[in-house]
Amino acid sequence: MKKLLSILAVAAIANIASAQYLQHPTTPHLNSDPASDAVLDKNKSGSADALDISEWYNHARAFDQIIAGSTVAYSVRFLSYDTNAYWTFHDDTRAHVFTHVMGQTFDPKDDTYDGISTVLSSHTDYMVDSIQFLRYYVRNLDSTMVGGSMVEVVDTMVIQFFTTPNNGIRFSGLQLQTGQNLLATPNRDNFSPTTMINSSNVKTLKIPLRSEDGDSVNYAGSQTSFFSTPVELPVGIQVNATSTSEVANVFAYTVHFKQMVPVKLGDTIFSISQANPNPGQPNNVLGVRTGRAPGVTQENSTNQKINNSIVMPTDLRWGATNSGNWKSYIAGNAYNEALLWDNWIKISSTNVSTDKINGLGEMKVYPNPSNSNTDANVTFASTKAGSAVITITDINGRVASSLNAEVTTGNNSIVVPTANLTAGIYFVNVAANGAKASTKLMIAK
Questions:
Q1: Which of 241, 268, 274, 294 has the most CB atoms lying inside 10 A of its own CB?
Q2: Cis status, amide bond into 367, omega within 30 of 0
Q3: In angstroms, how far is CA 338 from the centroid of its own chain?
Q4: CA 415, 417, 423, 425 torsion: positive or negative?
Q5: CA contacts within 13 A on the Cβ side of 400
Q6: 354 in any annotated domain
């Protein structure tokens, strides 16, 4: 598995990973004013014991708090429809556009949400009510000549939705020690590089963007020069649990930006050049708020995590394949630093049960935080007696220790040695009778 990780990180995407983050020294970052975050601070309702739920989920925020320890760095990631476009930076250096699609897979079984929102089971159907994200629409071109007349430029933001019941989502990529595929993207075989529409979608929204939709930009070397618009869209898609597998009831959506005026070779889609403000033909551009977690890879995963972002870099736009695993799309968590799209997904469900058949529940670990001189105790309830494997993994998925145990029906308590653990964040994972559960463990100095 480590060898596979190295192949993906080096051979497949090393040539585009740094570019994907647009880490040019002068790349402007998102407005850090807390007020810009306030629009996304949704009130959540419901509980693990409720029969009906209606909640907002945000994987980036949960990841930041639970996994990365509030170290996610947020910035604006711009999208372009055309592979010919260039960025021009304020020192007049240029770089090709790297991102054409941004997306997110959503798995309600992800225990990262534990303590933040209700974690559903593989048996639970739910309705995706709406989505919300921050949009950065920069207007460099308001009108153009069409048929001898000047007309308003109307760009398009295209949003496509995918679910597992109709085979719209493909699972492949890195595997953890458990052998599970925990990266997901839309079914790549049904993507058209010409239209950028994937026929596996269950619904497509095409939203026109006009002059009045443009966000204000005032770039003068400031790191707070971009101003966003909160986008909240009704979805109304039912996601059914058609199986009891780990990939049951997964949902995904993608966004791409189609410019009305085609890009010509050498055109600049967004220029923050000081010496030459408008080199070539300026084009409009769309951006979304994304984050990355330095030093945290895909292998942060606990047992039921199929939440990952979706991107399409330049070399995959036309269906190219990297390392045999990626074509048209690449899962954001396949990078050597996890890529996250900061968005909210609101779901509702009735007659919710968060317990699995023959499953595990009520999992806790104490003392927490613990230390290398004090063993931890993991407690959990099991609906069935049998053998269990208990592993402790670090935030990158590496197994620090493992032990076998017998569980009984009902409540169980097992001592987990911590003598070989250094200070940091770990996960205690229990696998028994085909069911799995995890909880976070802090080891203090």
A1: 268
A2: yes
A3: 9
A4: negative
A5: 24
A6: no
In a domain, 210, yes or no: yes
Domain assignment present for 249: yes
Both 26 and 69 in a single domain?
A: yes
Q: How many CB atoms lie within 10 A of CB 138?
A: 21
Query: Could you tell me the CATH number of the domain that includes residue 383?
Result: 2.60.40.1930
Contacts of 124 (CB under 8 A, 6+ apart): 108, 241, 249, 349, 352, 353, 354
Q: What is the pTM (predicted TM-score) of this model?
A: 0.75
In terms of domains, do 78 and 173 share one?
Answer: yes
318 and 372 inside one domain: no
215: tokens are 């966000």
8-state DSSP, 170: E
* Eight-state DSSP code of residue 133: E
Q: Which residue has the tokens 């060898």?
A: 3
Instruction: Report the amino acid identity of residue 291.
Output: G
DSSP 8-state code for residue 67: I
Tell me which residue has tokens 């372009």.
80
Q: Are 163 and 292 members of one domain?
A: yes
- Residues 43, 141, single domain; the answer is yes
User: Strands 149-152 and 99-106, how do they pair?
Assistant: unpaired
Q: Which residues pair with 135 in a beta bridge?
A: 229, 288
Q: What is the pLDDT of residue 250?
A: 93
Does 375 reside within a domain?
Answer: yes
- CA 299 to CA 333: how far, in whole Å? 8
Structure tokens at 349: 């469900």
User: How far, in Å, CA of 45 to CA of 198, rounded?
Assistant: 34
Q: What is the pLDDT of residues 358-396, one digit of tens each?
A: 467 667 888 888 887 788 889 888 878 888 899 888 776
Task: State whether 184 and 99 are in the same domain.
Answer: yes
Query: How many folded domains does the chain comprise?
Result: 2
Counting every residue written for the chain, the total comes to 445
Helix, coil or strand: residue 188: helix
CA distance 182 to 196: 25
Range of the domain at 406: 360-443
Termini Cα distance of the chain: 30
Peptide bond into 313 cis (omega under 30): no
- What pLDDT was estimated at residue 33? 32
Low-confidence ranges of the chain (pLDDT < 70): 1-51, 114-115, 173-181, 218-225, 273-279, 297-305, 336, 351, 353-359, 361-362, 396, 445
Residues 226 and 129 in one domain: yes
